[in-house]
Amino acid sequence: MFNVPQERAVPFGCVTPAPIGEQPMMRTGNWREFRPVIDHEQCNLCMNCVVWCPDACWQLSENEEEVVWNSTYCKGCLICVNECSHDALTKAYELDFPDGVVRLEKPF
Amino acid sequence: MAHVQEITVWTRGVVKDKEGRDVANGIAKAADKEGKFTQAFDNYVDLPDRVNVPVRKYARISDDDIEMKYEYENEKPQVVVVVDATLVKGIDVLRGVEKDGVLVVNTNRTPDEILKFIPNQQLLKSIACVDADGIAGESTVDFSGTEGGVDAVGLGSGIAAPLLGAVAKSTGLVKLESLAAVVKNKEGLFKGHETTVIKNLH
Amino acid sequence: MAKEMTLSGCAASAQAVKMAKVDVICSYPIRPYTAAMMELAKMVAEGELDAEFIHGEGEHAQLSVVYGASAAGARTFTGSSGVGVTYAMEVYSPISGARLPVQMMIADRALDPPGDFGSEHTDAMSCRDQGWIMGWAESPQEAFDNHLINYRIGEDPRVMLPQFVCQDGYFVSHIPGKVLIPDQAQVDEFLPPYNPGKHVLDPKQPVSHGPQIRPDQGAIMDLQRAEAFLEMPKVIEEAVGDFNRIFGRHYSPFVEEFLTDDAEIVFFIQGGHAATARYAVKHLRERGVKAGLVKLRFVRPFPTTQVAESLAKFKGVGVVETSTSYGGSMRGGNLLVEVRAALYDVPKRPLTTSFMAGLGGDAVTLKDFYWMAEILTNAVKAGRVGKTVYWAGLEQAVA
After folding, report:
1. Which of B40, B45, B68 sits opposite C176 (nearest CB)?
2. Same structural domain, C47 and C70
3. Full-model pTM
4. What is the pLDDT of residues C190-221, one digit of tens each?
């Protein structure tokens, strides 16, 4: 009798599946004006950026040789730049980079 | 029912929230002085109390009484103002624009550099760039006008003023004199109007 | 001289409360009514309003604080939205039973789950049995006016009851509209200073509030309030009459009719969406549909006689419900139940049905009203309604 349009549908009891690892419905990469840029030569893998990032956007790579940046979720808070112990991180204006686009249709 | 001009302003929460609101309110107040029927309000679901989150403000202008007063969004904006340029990478700012839209961006870069990030530029008639940050120097941060409250510090002391000048020059929606009557930073308004670079796309 | 300002519903409410020279305000933030308290806080801080501004620790505390303040003889103001309104539920009956004219602003918000800021009247409507006066505003102007009118009605010695002054969250509370702000002298003429009765706390005349009573006295307690509600329509008519005279407005005390002269079908509605309904009715008329609008200004006391007299003139009535009453007799909202009860004894009754619209804060569009008009027209043609509740936007039925 009732037809609920797909984009308005709500799960039973409004209970939603919990995100594991990342929440693709809340990509916060479009919050940043500046992004951190890493100089791998300078980096001594102190892991400060990994520990301090509030959104876990710096992660040690699989082969444990470098730290890898997550452009989908980085909010550009620049805490990592502030906490880097070896001057490996600097900030750069987002529009200088053609990559890292998180073009959402709506804010959420 | 007369046509309703819709203007959507994209800005960032906390740091440029008031400036975005000032752009929308400035357009509405100026149009009001010209005898139009207007509305100006913040988007309700955007939750702007988070630093840098993309948020929207709306203005609407009509020659006749606006009938659908109670809406949540501007479905079909003709003018889109982007208060922080990096938003073009993060949001499809032209969503809802049908055709011949005007995009106004606060940036010191050229229109071509901004257009690189806009894949659906065929929806645009023109793009206008103004270095509002350079002209006004700062963005006012103030919460008195949020959530339906009354703004206590005045309209357009920061980057909103040159942005409004750019809107006047690139859209003709409101006259510069009407805007001058409602903004505080008149010098910024005129300088913005003067230095806006407009590129017509067709 | 009246001054015109562009204010949101929250800001307009704050202005009205300031001009009413309230004594005690108790705040607690919840979206969307919060801005009213923000405005009042600014006014108190800047010396524009001489009032005690107390920040409660929750909505239950808010109501308890103004209960005490009103019991001590102060003109009080508080407010809430959504689940805040239901959080304070325990205190509504004590305030009403103690005959204290506290005023509470409710900017509607849908009740959880989950978090939905949109306007739905269920938050306030679920408190309609608590013995408070309750009515909705359609615009920031009406919100401003309703605050003053409600203080006058509530504080009248024949009434002495608290009031819920309601407005749709976001639609009315956040979207600015033009408001005529009167002179303080006009407000003072309309609203005399609060004259608390002999039952308030006073060291010179000690009283006890809320003692234990026997069950056989309980009905008498309830009867006192029921009698006040019987007196109330007269007080409301006087108050609105005075208001119109002093401020130059044209409010009807209970039901407001729009384009109903030869109407066959009408929308019966309260709150913000009435503003959109007016345009819909105008356009329907242009298309040759004999549509009209009847707007309800008070849901408590429900103006039974006035509603019956008004609606009896039409063939089909569509009650627009923006609240839910799950399992209720009409399986929809609460207004249709009240309307049908009011019409029961009318010899020639119109067909009545209800439309769930605007629930959860959903926008109600002109197209929605046209769809409702089609259903009503078909019902009148068929001589009966297809069902008692239709959900706007979620079903295709036109009969």
Report:
1. B40
2. yes
3. 0.94
4. 999 998 888 889 899 899 888 899 999 999 99
